Amino acid sequence: MWPLTRRNAAGRSDPSPSRTAYKINRLLLSPLFRGTVKLGLPLAAMAALGGWIWVDEARRTLLTDIYHEARRSIEQRPEFSVRMLAVDGASPALAQEVRQTLMLDLPISSFDLELDKMRADIETLNPVATAQLQVRQGGVLQIQIEERSPVALWRTPAGELWTIDVTGHPIRLALRRADFPGMPLLSGEGADSAIQEGLAVLNAAAPLGDRVRGLKRRGERRWDVVLDRSQVIQLPDAAEGRDPVTALQRLIARDKAQDLFARDITIFDMRLPERPTLRLSQAATQEMLRIRSLESGGTP
Amino acid sequence: MFDLYQSQRAQRRMRNAAMDRGVIAILDVGSTKIACLVLRFDGVDPSGGRDGVGALAGQSRFRVIGAATTRSRGVAFGEIEAMAETERAIRTVVSGAQKMAQVRVDHVIACLSGGRPRSYGLDSQINLTETPISEQDVARALAACDAPDLGEGREVLHAQPVNFAIDHRSGLSDPRGQTGNRLATDMHLLSVDGGVVANLIHCIKRCDLELAGLASSAYAAGIAALVEDEQELGAACIDMGGGATGVSIFLRKHMIYSDSVRIGGDHVTSDISKGLQIAPHQAERIKTFHGGVVATGLDDREMIEIGGETGDWEHDRRQVSRAEVIGVMRPRLEEIFEEVRAKLDAAGFEHLPSQQIVLTGGGSQVPGLEGLASRILGQQIRLGRPLRVQGLPQAATGPAFAAAVGLCLFAAYPQDEWWDFELPAPSTAGRSLRRAVRWFRDNW
């Protein structure tokens, strides 16, 4: 028999858990309590902390200040600063224009650059077809620009003179026609939207050489080729299924055979290509009437 | 006896509640070790079983998810002698098994090896008023058994109906739905000392556990270690524990007799300790490593260092031959078997069709034990190991765990006991209404 009154006799280590430890262990193993401790308590603590911060304006501002301060300090690091702007693929004038559009205050943190917005801004410039922006290593903001190339001059209905590219997009205001001697001139309302067709017509009119003054869009549906000496070739409407280029080629072929353009004719009407019509000038008409009357035996 | 009926019914309800929750613990409080297994029931009742036994001998329903063992403290002869010590030991195993299972267990099925079990064979006869035989009639027949005088402070541990007879047809396993004039039953009743049961229940209650069943450890070891045909044809299971040796006799898959001998492996250890003048833990070590029951010439030459911690060099360097150890162990084991022989003779074991004897329990691991047992008990001896159970750790598959494994099977498929039947209600509204309905049917 061992002493009954002595609790936890010294030197006798007891491997069994104490009653309290046993009960706590069992409590921790019960599913509801376990779920409460592992999920419920942390959630409740987080909610309480959030609420405690939220109720007081000062704590809230303090927290947002700390956040912004930390963010600022990271953004201001030299690794993220952009110190140089490189514009590639643009003429010097356009590059200058791009710089003025962006108005960047260098050096600037790359976090403050809104590349998408900057790209949209650059692409609103008329001479710019596309732009690619990239922040490169070494703090360089590289802008790769693809410039529009002018193919023709366009006289707008308001009377302004613009250079336009193959898509019909206006590029620059031209002050004088003489600055662009090699470029054909398009005019009339809707000329810019039918530029492809116009260029095809001009291409077909190449045999006429420098007699061609330009093209004029009529009623936003068909082209007139304006020659010197006030001669006009009226071409059919492509939307109605009649090809203006073919019509022009046929007229040029006829000119080669009959020397049409050298005659005193003002309008070559090819609007119905199967029935070409000519209009003589005033003087030629009278001359023809006179000759007709002579032929019919009248008095001169 | 009536309140025991109620408390046993309460345990059955606890067991059903545990089945609903799917987790139940097995607690084997022995004299040498205390083992706890945690079972998880998946609730899938395997179909395709025959004779009420499902696939994998009915074990596919549950799985052992936690197991722990500790040296028992405060238990002797299978009875609790120091409550606080035992309670601590139970806390140790339960928390260990819970830790392995990672689940909390609230319901526990325990077994009892001590308490001087005593078997009674009861029978009764009732005349049947209405056929076919209903469950009410079975309950009435069981209630008609005249209870023997169990003695002062003794309680009923098992009361299992083992046989039914209708008129002159005996050996029926299920009389329900049959027709006859007279229903007779045989019931096996096992009584134990009430104080021992109360101590165990109190210890379990102190650990915040609910008792969901209580079984005799000899019975549990029998259902774990005996194979089916042995249970059918008649066999005795001898569960050689530390403090007590349990004897259970099975016939026709029912336990028909159980008794215990209050000598066990601890007594062998104490004999070695006394005979060789060494400490009990060294004696236990020598018994497990060098023990035996048949001495040969080689054993005379095999010298064992028996050691000691007294500090006396001569005393601590003593050597004994293995034959001497065997000479100490053998008389005690012979004594155990002679006691068991006496119990078997008292039970009329020689009249059974098959007289298979199965040795199990931790004490049955002594080499050569079956040779010794066959000289005393009879020719048909084998060493039994418990059934293999899903998920049981390798360390807990030895014969020492026969009772624990048997309790697992007991938890999954409990034997019908007397208290599983509703008490007969002689005059209820339902019965008179049924009688009125029958009268109408007969006369119109």
Q: Give the overall form of chain B.
A: globular
* CATH fold group of the domain at 188-294 in chain A: Rossmann fold
Shape of chain A: elongated
Q: Between the first and last Cα atoms of chain B, what is the distance in angstroms? A: 46 Å
Largest sheet of chain A: 9 strands, mixed
CATH class of the domain at 188-294 in chain A: Alpha Beta
Largest sheet of chain B: 5 strands, mixed
Give a quick set of tags describing it.
A: 300 residues; Ubiquitin-like (UB roll); Rossmann fold; nine-stranded mixed beta sheet; 8 helices; elongated; B: 444 residues; alpha+beta; Dna Ligase, domain 1; five-stranded mixed beta sheet
Explain this structure.
The complex is a heterodimer of chains A (300) and B (444). Chain A has 300 residues and is of the alpha/beta class. Chain A is built from eight helices and 14 strands. Chain A is elongated and about 165 Å long. In chain A, 17% of the residues are buried. In chain B, helix 2 crosses helix 4 and helix 5 packs across helix 13. With 444 residues, chain B is an alpha+beta fold. The model of chain B has no long low-confidence stretch (mean pLDDT 86). Chains A and B meet through helix 1 of A and helix 2 of B.
